[in-house]
Specification:
The chain is mainly beta. It has one helix at 2-20, and strands at residues 25-30, 36-41, 47-52, 62-64, 70-73, 77-81, 87-92, 99-106, 109-115, 119-124, 130-136, 151-152, 158-161, 167-171, 177-182, 187-192, 198-202, 205-209, 216-221, 224-225, 228-229, 232-238, 244-249, 261-264, 270-274, 285-290. It has one domain (24-290): 7 Propeller (Methylamine Dehydrogenase, Chain H), CATH 2.130.10. Helices cover 7% and strands 46% of the residues. Strands 3-2-1-26 form a 4-stranded antiparallel β-sheet, with no helix packed on it. The chain has a 4-stranded antiparallel β-sheet with strand order 4-5-6-7, with no helix packed on it. The protein is globular and about 45 Å long.
């Protein structure tokens, strides 16, 4: 009986340990108008960690890097920190008229997208030192109306959603236009998908466009889902299960109960919503990880 009891106890311990070690879904969130970058437990919707945005900063991109640090843009700079809040590097934008709106990790360093005249796309090494720079005239004089989330494509070109006039651009590292599509104004984010088509989000909604022709492949969201109103769809995040989490910025709306984050399945049905703006006021950037 003692041997049976011991085996039973060990079995329970193994089960408890495996449950304890089970990874949980977390979201790294930030937003223009919010005062922090934060980590949310997706299941409990509780804020587990936060880091203050530098004063007068505007954060429209935040991500976990491959080595577990946090990279974010804050308009007047971009910063890499560890989860204890220690600064690893900080890249301040020296010109007052410029706005660093995108900060992303690359295979060999980091990529920054900077609004200005001209706009600049800066490539940093692993230590946060500048390696190279691409300049480009967006045709939009006001820096703040140029773009928010520009991204690199797999071929190394730069994808730029122009907010002010609705142009969707692809340029090479020399600043030459490779492709250009005309969509509606209010574009916020463009991401290259696995099949090379483009996932685009902004005031017109969320849609997939053919990379070569610019034709609409699929309209995912316009301005509403049943029970949910979208103010300004910002960053779409595709998950491995085919679902999508979308950040929904409230800054141009006065709807207090508007959802900040929405998860939909492959058929466009809502499966999860976060709408508590008492903890994080605005969300325009979201990334997913498990811990």
């Amino acid at each position: 009986m003692k041997k049976i009891a011991l085996l039973l106890s060990l079995s329970i311990l193994v089960i408890v340990s495996s449950c304890t070690n089970e990874k949980k879904a977390k979201l790294l969130i930030a937003g223009s108008g919010s005062n922090c970058v934060a980590i949310m437990d997706k299941e409990t919707k509780s804020i587990e960690w936060s880091y203050p945005i530098p004063e007068k900063g505007e954060c429209n991109t935040a991500m976990f890097t491959s080595d577990g640090n946090v990279l974010f843009s804050y308009s007047k700079g971009a910063r890499l920190i560890d989860t204890l809040g220690n600064t690893i590097w900080d890249f301040p934008e020296e010109e007052e008229i410029q706005e660093i709106q995108t900060a992303r990790e690359t295979e060999d360093g980091y990529f920054l997208a900077v609004c200005g005249t001209p706009a600049k796309f800066i490539f940093l090494d692993k230590q946060g030192n500048k390696k190279s720079e691409t300049t480009f005239d967006t045709g939009i004089e006001a820096s703040h109306a140029q773009f928010r989330q520009a991204n690199l494509s797999k071929n190394g070109n730069i994808l730029i959603p122009i907010m002010g006039n609705g142009s969707l651009l692809e340029i090479d590292r020399e600043g030459n236009i490779v492709n250009k599509f005309q969509l509606k104004s209010g574009l916020f984010c463009v991401k290259e998908m696995e099949d090379s088509n483009l996932l685009v989000a902004g005031e017109p909604g969320v849609a997939i466009y053919d990379r070569k022709s610019g034709e609409l492949v699929k309209q995912i969201i316009t301005d509403t889902l049943p029970g949910i109103k979208f103010g300004f769809p910002t960053e779409p995040l595709l998950l491995s299960n085919g679902h999508m989490i979308l950040s929904n910025w409230q800054g141009h709306e006065s709807v207090a109960d508007q959802a900040l984050l929405v998860e939909i399945d492959g058929s466009g049905n809502e499966v999860w919503v976060y709408d508590d703006n008492s903890k994080v006021k605005f969300i325009s950037s979201v990334s997913y990880f498990e811990k």
